[in-house]
Specification:
- By secondary structure, this protein is mostly helical.
- The chain has a single domain, classed as MetI-like (MetI-like fold, Orthogonal Bundle).
- The chain contains nine helices and no strands.
- α2 packs antiparallel against α3, α5 packs across α7 and α6 packs antiparallel against α7.
- The longest helix has 38 residues.
- The protein is elongated and about 70 Å long.
- The mean pLDDT is 89.
């Protein structure tokens, strides 16, 4: 193990540049997948004819495919039908589709967990279905969605490392390049990568606990 040379300024800078790409891709994917998941999950919950069943089929397909396959597809297969995406955009699209499908199930399950008696009481008091959904179902469902949503976001951040297969210049890609300089760098570089991942993911866990406690 060679900590001194592994932690040379240029190496650390290179690793942090990769970590920045990891955070950027993860953040954009989290926002997009959350929006997509909320829309799809809500539409499936409301059971709109034709649309909900079609979305259900798409969600089941995405959930049962390996994320690695979806990453490969967005990067190498879409150009065959005229859709060319750069490495970063391909990774974001793949993560958004896959995680959006996962989040949609979390949203749908959270909405379904609300007692039907509350919904019936709201409707009998004169609230429309949409107002009942907005004022009664969603606020309560959100409280129950927080823990699984944060867990999914943490998984998304870790899943960005799979995009190394399409040469996304993220943390693991840059770590691999630094390790390629010397076998003695393996332990120090991977230790730094582990610390960076842990710091962000643990921070997300703490934020989720605080947010959940405020909702209760």
């Amino acid at each position: 193990m060679d900590f001194a040379n592994a932690f040379a300024i240029e190496n650390l800078k290179f690793i942090l540049e990769g970590f920045y790409v990891t955070l950027k891709v993860a953040f954009i994917s989290i926002v997009l997948s959350f929006v997509l998941g909320c829309i799809v999950g809500t539409v499936r919950y409301t059971k709109i004819p034709v649309i909900s069943p079609i979305l259900g089929i798409i969600v089941e397909i995405l959930r049962n495919l390996p994320l690695l396959l979806i990453i490969f597809f967005t990067r190498f297969a879409l150009p065959d039908i005229g859709i060319k995406l750069g490495v970063v955009n391909a990774a974001i699209v793949a993560l958004t589709l896959f995680e959006g499908a996962m989040i949609s199930e979390i949203v749908r399950s959270g909405l379904k967990s609300i007692d039907k008696g509350q919904i019936e009481a709201a409707r009998s008091s004169g609230l429309s279905y949409m107002r009942t959904l907005w004022h009664i179902i969603l606020p309560q469902g959100l409280r129950r969605m927080v823990p699984p949503l944060v867990s999914q976001f943490i998984s998304l951040l870790k899943d960005t490392s799979l995009a190394v297969i399409i040469s996304l210049p993220e943390l693991m890609n840059h770590s691999k390049i630094v390790i390629g300089q010397s076998y003695d760098y393996v332990f120090p570089v991977l230790l730094v990568a582990a610390i960076l991942y842990f710091t962000v993911n643990y921070g997300l866990s703490l934020l989720s606990r605080r947010f959940e406690s405020r909702l209760l």
